[in-house]
Amino acid sequence: MPATLNRRFLLRERPVGDFDPKVLQRVVEPVPTPGPGEALVRNRYLSLDPTNRIWMGEGESYLPPVPLGEVMRGAAVGEVVASNSKKFPVGAKVAGLLGWQDYAVVSEAGDAMAQVIPGWLPVPLTATLGVLGVTGMTAYFGLFDIGKPKRGETVVVSAAAGAVGSIVGQLAKIHGCRVVGIAGSQDKCEWLTRELGFDVAINRRDANWREQLTAACPRGIDIDFENAGGEILEAILERMNNHGRIVLCGMISQYGKDQGNAPGPRHFVNLLTRRITLQGFIIIDYIPRFPLAQLKMLWWLKRGRLKDRSTIVKGLDNAPQALTQLFSGENVGKLMVEIDEAPTA
Ligand SMILES: NC(=O)c1ccc[n+]([C@@H]2O[C@H](COP(=O)([O-])OP(=O)(O)OC[C@H]3O[C@@H](n4cnc5c(N)ncnc54)[C@H](OP(=O)(O)O)[C@@H]3O)[C@@H](O)[C@H]2O)c1
């Protein structure tokens, strides 16, 4: 019988500026054998995230840079196919930092942040990367813990048709807020208002998007769920209300830029004069609180109050090219790769 092999994408060099798929090198290796206390996971879906670009850089961040020559770090979900571990029995579905590869070894020591997905969860595996996974948790804790929305307040969310943004807007609507989304195309804007119930959606590629933002927020902005940074953050800072909150979730427009030489945002002084709170956060700090939030999200999902959309690219070999979608704005909702059959020798 032919032996199955393990395709892996290694980080060959660090990207300079924008992400270039050529920095990743495809190799084919034997499938690893799990040792004592370890299990072998067959990856099924690989999450593509803007933070992949951060992890490729050499600067220290909230996780160390991916070492050159090592498998690219990435969140994925899969199924245990061989096991020497009671925690990860054969057949269990597992989510974690399983890497850009067909097969990953997880250990009870917890180095891949691997978690068994409860078997009773009535959702497809893709939802455990999207609305019930890190994406949904980022939206939930960012909005509720940091944004602290009150009914009737105006919430602006950038990258609004993306994975995190599309959930933030829906949660803010459930909470009774006025929600304004900023996205990169007319089609996305129509989806946000017609399907997801956003009050207004603004195409950031329109020449007059700043005027549209003023018109969409006649009572100013109380909460900014910031995913983009750059000129979008500056325009929002100019329009924030007294005692507003800025949830600094991401700054995708800045990834790959030399931060030591980047200009500061204009209107920054408004933080002072308008008593605005700006707080950054990293979702891994909230992992112990995930279960209750996941139950709440599941409740809204099953009642049709939350819609979960993904852009699924088929084939592990297409992952490097697919990652560029996040920076060009081609994806709608959660971008992931469905991993196909591994090659055999
Ligand atoms: N803090 C945390 O723990 C945490 C966790 C997860 C994600 N995040 C952050 O959350 C943000 C969204 O992540 P996601 O996974 O949900 O990705 P996503 O929104 O699904 O995809 C990224 C989107 O960003 C927009 N974009 C790309 N380049 C841009 C630019 N130069 N200016 C403005 N918008 C741009 C594009 O949408 P449009 O073209 O439609 O604007 C693109 O679709 C990212 O900044 C990410 O780093 C943070």
In short:
Helix content is 25%, strand content 25%.
Describe what you observe in this structure.
The chain has helices at 51-56, 134-147, 163-174, 186-194, 209-216, 231-239, 270-273, 290-302, 319-328; strands at 5-11, 24-30, 38-47, 76-83, 93-96, 103-107, 115-116, 154-158, 178-183, 200-203, 221-226, 240-248, 277-280, 310-314, 334-338. With 345 residues, it is α/β, with parallel strands linked by helices. The protein has 2 domains: 5-130 and 308-338, Quinone Oxidoreductase, Chain A, domain 1 (Alpha-Beta Complex), CATH 3.90.180; 134-284, 3-Layer(aba) Sandwich (Rossmann fold). Strands 3, 4, 5, 6, 7, 14 and 15 form a 7-stranded mixed β-sheet that branches. A 6-stranded parallel β-sheet has the order 10-9-8-11-12-13, sandwiched between helices. Helix 6 links the parallel strand 11 (221-226) and strand 12. Helix 2 crosses helix 8. It is globular and about 70 Å long. The relative contact order is 0.16. The mean pLDDT is 96. The chain binds NADP nicotinamide-adenine-dinucleotide phosphate (NAP). The site of NADP nicotinamide-adenine-dinucleotide phosphate has 30 residues, from helix 3 and helix 9.
* Shape descriptor: globular
Please, what is the oligomeric state?
single chain
Radius of gyration: 21 Å
Number of helices: 9
Q: Fill in the CATH topology of the largest domain.
A: Quinone Oxidoreductase, Chain A, domain 1
Helix fraction, binned, reads: 10-25%
**Number of structurally distinct domains:** 2
Strand content: 25-35%
Hetero compounds? NADP nicotinamide-adenine-dinucleotide phosphate
User: What is the number of E strands?
Assistant: 15
| Annotated CATH homologous superfamily of the largest domain | Medium-chain alcohol dehydrogenases, catalytic domain
The end-to-end span amounts to: 9 Å
Instruction: Calculate the mean pLDDT score and round it.
Output: 96
